[in-house]
Design goal:
Length: 326
């Protein structure tokens, strides 16, 4: 069978689909229309009914619902088997996944199972089949040409809009699945005790650097983040100093983020940090040094001591949200 069409892999996590799934659908829809090929999604869960309904209303042509108790908790092995079974049986040519932890892990396995080329953190897929992804703060754009009939692609977060639910519903096809013998089992999920927003899906991030001086220095940043509904990020210098966890690190050896708003506080903006955040929508820098790279890069640069400015900004945000919040 010729490999044609685009397949979005929708991975449920604790009964929900991450919002990145809807970015995949929007990207897939654009590509499918350009190529005049069908767009389908495969929903993987122990309970697919509501999830498949939701996906079916967001502009795909068909939904495959793979429901099995082994898909209750995420294991790469079982989810990859389920996605690969649908992709190979139906002969899809482009498999789209989110660039989150689960999506990347699945993408690697799927590329092996489907003997497919793999490109990660892609920001654009051209109708000629090439994928582009930025490196080094977008200073280098790499073009990936696939030599294989099937391409597995993870899409950079926030690079595409989210497909909205509409009145029309695509066909939902239930798919029987037997994971067979597996080497891994899902043992359990231990939620983080903090109520921090995860950076990967955050639309706003407040990030702190070495200029905060201590772990204590992050306190006003957390306060501002809570007021804004934002996640908290950090430079490597702050992480290496032990002021905040590695999972908060933004940059070359941390996480790549693309929020609508990135507020960099007391971060100088070395190239390794910029590599992880320079594609953000609006960048605000707060720094004592007006000439540092982040102040030069930012859309809004505020010169001054963070210890004075951040509490003032947080108070103003709270005041405005308090008066204007519906
Ligand atoms: C291989 C490699 C990988 C790396 N990966 C990463 C990575 O993933 N992420 C990353 O961030 N870095 C990474 N780095 C480190 C990077 O090169 C920088 O050292 C680091 O980003 C600097 O962090 P910073 O901006 O917080 O600190 P600094 O460069 O020391 O900047 C501190 C800033 O705080 C300002 N400041 C000081 N006091 C105040 C105040 N009171 N109020 C306001 N501003 C103030 C200063 O003016 C200064 O601009 C990597 C380096 C290497 C070699």
């Amino acid at each position: 069978m010729a490999n044609k069409g685009i397949l979005v892999v929708a991975v449920s996590q604790r009964g929900k689909l991450p919002p990145a799934t809807f970015e995949l659908i929007a990207a897939g829809r654009g590509l499918a229309d350009a190529l005049k090929e069908p767009l389908a999604a495969v929903v993987l869960s122990d309970k697919t009914s509501a999830l498949a309904d939701d996906v079916a209303s967001r502009g795909v042509d068909k939904v495959f619902a793979v429901e099995h108790p082994s898909l209750a908790g995420f294991t790469e092995e079982v989810f990859a088997k389920a996605a690969a079974a649908v992709a190979s049986k139906e002969g899809y040519g482009k498999i789209l996944l989110a660039s989150n932890v689960a999506g990347r892990a699945l993408a690697a396995r799927l590329s092996v199972l489907l003997k497919a080329g793999l490109a990660c953190d892609v920001a654009e897929i051209r109708p000629d089949g090439a994928a582009t992804r930025p490196y080094f703060s977008g200073n280098l754009v790499c073009e990936v040409q696939f030599k294989t009939p099937v391409a597995v692609i993870t899409l950079a977060p926030m690079a595409f809009p989210r497909a909205e639910a509409g009145p029309s519903k695509a066909e939902i096809v239930p798919v029987a699945f037997d994971p067979g013998a597996t080497k891994t089992v899902f043992a359990g999920f231990v939620p983080e005790s903090s109520n921090e927003i995860d950076m990967g899906s955050a639309e706003r991030i407040v990030s702190g650097g070495r200029g905060l001086g201590s772990a204590e220095g992050f306190k006003p940043l957390f306060e501002l983040a809570h007021a804004l509904g934002a996640a908290v990020g950090a430079s490597r210098a702050a992480v290496d100093s032990g002021w905040i966890a590695y999972k908060n690190q933004v940059g070359l050896t941390g996480r790549s983020v693309r929020p609508k708003l990135y507020i960099a506080v007391a971060i100088s903006g070395q190239i390794q940090h910029l590599a992880g955040m320079s594609s953000s929508g609006t960048i605000v820098a707060v720094n004592t040094d007006k000439d540092c790279p982040l102040m030069q890069l930012a859309n809004v640069s505020v010169q001054g001591d963070y210890a004075e400015l951040i509490p003032l900004i947080a108070a103003e945000v709270k005041k405005r949200r308090g008066t204007s919040a519906a």
